[in-house]
# Entry
Amino acid sequence: MRISTHTLFESGAARIGELQSGLVKTQQQIATGRRILAPSDDPVAAARALEVTQTQSLNTQYGANRQHAKSALGAVEGTLTSVTALLQDVKTTVIAAGNAALSDTERGFMATELSARLEELLGLANTRDAVGNYLFSGFQTTTPAFSKDAITGVVTYDGDQGQRLLQVDATRQMSVTAPGSTVFQGGQDVFQTLNDLVVLLQTSGAPSSVVLGTHNDNLDLALDSVLTVRASVGSRLKELDSLDYAGEDRNLQYSQILSELQDLDYAKALTQFSQQQTTLEAAQQSFVKASGLSLFNYI
Amino acid sequence: MASNILGIGQSALTASQVGLSTTGHNIANASTPGYSRQAVVQGASLPQNFGFGFLGQGTEVSTVKRIYNEYLGNQVQSAQTSKSGLDSYYAQIKQIDNLLADPASGLSPALQDFFSGIQEVASNPASIPSRQAALSSAESLASRFHSLAGRLDEIGQGVNSQVLSSVGAINSYAEQIANLNDAIGRAQRATGQPPNDLLDMRDQLILDLNKEVKATVVKQGDDGYNVFIGNGQPLVVGGVTFKLSNLTSPTNPSKIEVAYQTSNGDLVILADSGIVGGKLGGLIEFRNKTLEPTQNALGRVAIGLAITFNGQHDDGYDLDGNPGGPMFSLPSPVVTANSGNVGITADITAQISDPAALTASDYRLQFDGTNYTVTRLSDNFTFPPGALPQTVDGVEVDLASGAPVAGDSFLIRPTVNGASGIGVAITDPRLIAAAATTGAVGDNGNALKLGALQTANIMSGGTSTYQGAYSQIVSQIGNKTRELDVTSSAAGKLLNEATLSLQNESGVNLDEEATNLLRYQQAYQAAAKVMQIASEMFDTLLTLGR
# Structure
C-alpha cells in the first residue's frame, strides 16, 4: 500500500498529541488528588457528590444546632439545680421553724430569711441566657418571666407557653426551653408557697405542726415539679449526646462516600501515568526513526 | 532517417523534462494542504509507414493529470463537517462543564450556606447578628445565581461573535469558490486540459467550507461546482454567490441568527434546523440544545427557590410581630412580541403560578384570529387552543391590553431571567419572619419550616429538592459533554480514516518521487545519448565527402 509522506508526519504528530493529552490529564488528577476534574469525567458521580455534600453539610448544621440546644438546656439545667438547692434549704428552715421553743422574734428572723429566699428564687426564675434572653418566659424572651406586685407580693407570669424547638437531627425537633409557668407554677405555685410561709412565720405564736406540715407538703409538691422538669431536661441532654455520636458517625460515612466518588486511586493513577509515559516515549522514538528514513539520504 | 532519430531523441528529452518538472512540483508541494500528486500521461507517437513496416516516431505527453478520487474526497468532506460540528459544540459545552467543575464556585455551597444561616436564625430567633448573617447569606446566594447566569450570558455573547465570524468565513469561501469556478471554466475551455492546481484549490476550499457548515456540491457540467448548504440553500451557483447574512432574532434581542437574502433583497432568517454540521452548525446546536436550556434550568431553580421560600416566609411574623413579606424579589417572565407582528398594541403578560410545574422550556404563543395556541418549544408540544388567560406548565399567560392580529406570535420565556434577576427584597434583619405566632420574639416556628424547605421535594413537580434540581443540571451538562467527547473522538477517527484513504491515493510520497527523479534523470540522459548518436551519425556522413 502506498502512503503519503504527509500522512506519515501527520499521523505521527496526532498520535503523539493524543498521548500527551492523556498524560496531562493523568498528571492533573495526580496533582489535585481528584478523579473527577469536571462533571463530564463522571456525570453520575459528580451529581451524586453534590447531593452527598449537601447531606453532609446539613449533618454538620444539625451538629451546630445540637450545640445551641445543649447550651440552652444546660442553662435551664444549671438554674434548676440552684432552684432545687434553694428549695431544700427552705425545707430545712421550715422544719427548724417547728421548734416550739422559738420566740416570735426568732421566727421573725426566719421569715426575713425566707423572704430573702423568695427574692433569690424570683431572680433565678428571671435568669437570662448568654445573649440576654430570659430563659423561662416562653417566646417572650425580652420580657422578664415573673414580676412581683410590690404591695400584695403576688408573683405573676408574664411570659407565654411557647416552647422553642430546634432541629437537632434530620427528623427530630427538640424543645430547648421550659415555660416558667410550668416549672414554677405547674402544680403548686412555689412563689405563693414561700409567700404563705413568710406570712405564717411573721404571725405571732408558734404555728401548729399540722399547718407547718401542710406547708411542708406544698414545698415538696413545688420541688417535685422542678425535679420533673430537670429530669426531662437531663434526658434531652443525654439524647443530644447520643445524637452527637450518631452524627459524627454519619459524618465519617459521608466523607467516605465522597472520597469514593471523587478521590483518585493513587496506585492506579501512578501506574497509568508510567504506562502512558512509556508509550509516549516509544511513540516519539519510533516517529523520529521512521521519519528519518528517506531515499534522498542516498542520492 | 537521421533527422528522425534526432526527432525521436528530442521527443524523449521533452517528455523526461516534463517528468522531471512534474516530480519537482510534487516534491515542492508535498506538504501543501489539499494538493494531489500529479502524474505525466505519456504515449508513443503515431508510427510512420516506411514500406518495410511502421517505424516509431518517439513519445508524446498527452496530459498531466492529478491523482484524485472524488468519492474519497466527498467522504473526507462529510467526515470533516461532522467532526468540526462536534468539536465546536464540545468546545462550547466544555466551558459550562468547567464552570460547574469547581465544587466551590457552583451553586451548592451558596445554597448550603443560605440554609445554614436560616438554621442559625431558628436557633437564635431574637438575635440580630444571626438574622444579619442569614440575610448576608441570602445576598451571596443571589449573587452566586447572578454570577453563574452572567457567565452563561458571556458564553452566549461568545456564540454570537463566533456565528458572525463563521458567516464571514463562509461568505469568503463562497466568493473564492465562485471565482475558481470561473477561472477553471476559462482554463479548461481554452486548453482542453485540466488546470490541476486550481482544481485542488477549489476542492480544498470546499473542505474548508465544510469546516464551517455542511455543504453539498452538485457538479455542473465538467467544470462548475454548485454549492448548497443546509436544506438546499444555494451558496454558489457557477460564478454567482448567494451570501449569508445575520439578523438579530426578532423575538430575542440578545441572539444573533443566520439569515440569507431572498431574490427581492429581503433578509430572511435561516431555520436553525437548516444549519447543520461544521463550526456554525455546532454553535447553533449548542445554543439551542444546551446553552438556552441550561440558562432556563438555572433560572427555574432560582424561581422555584424564591417563590416557595417567599410563600413560607409570608406565613410567619417578623421580630416586630408584623406578617412576613417576600424575602426574595423576582423579575417577571420575559414575553417578546415577534418583530413582524401587526397588532403592535397587544401586551401579553406571563406570571408564574406554580413553581413545581415549571419546565426549563420556552413557549410560543400564536394567535389565529380567534384562539391562542401555546407551543412548548423543547418538544414542540402544542397545548389545546383557547382564549386567554391560559395556564400552561405553571405559567399563566394573559392579554393585559391591546389586541393582537391573526398571525401574530409571541415568545414566552418563563425562566430565562430567573437566575440573573433574583434579588433579596429585605435589608432589615428584623424583617425575617422567624416566628409562627405574632408578638413572640423567641418564637422560631416559621424559621424551622423555612429551614425544612432545604430538604423538601418541591421542584420538578414535587420530585426533587433545590439542590436536586441543580444537581440535575450538573449531571445533564456532564453527560452531554462526555457524550460529545466520545462522539467527537469517534468522528475524528472516521475523519482520519477517510483522510488516510484519500492521502494514500493522492498524497505525495517522497521516496516515490525520489525514484521518479532517478527514472526521469536516466531517461533524460538516455535521450541525450540518442541525440548525441544521431549527431555523430551526421558527422560521419559529413566526413565521407572530405
About this structure: Chain A touches chain B through 54 residues (CB under 8 Å). The CA atoms of residues 57 and 251 of chain A lie 9 Å apart. The first helix of chain A runs from residue 5 to 32. The mean pLDDT of chain A is 91.
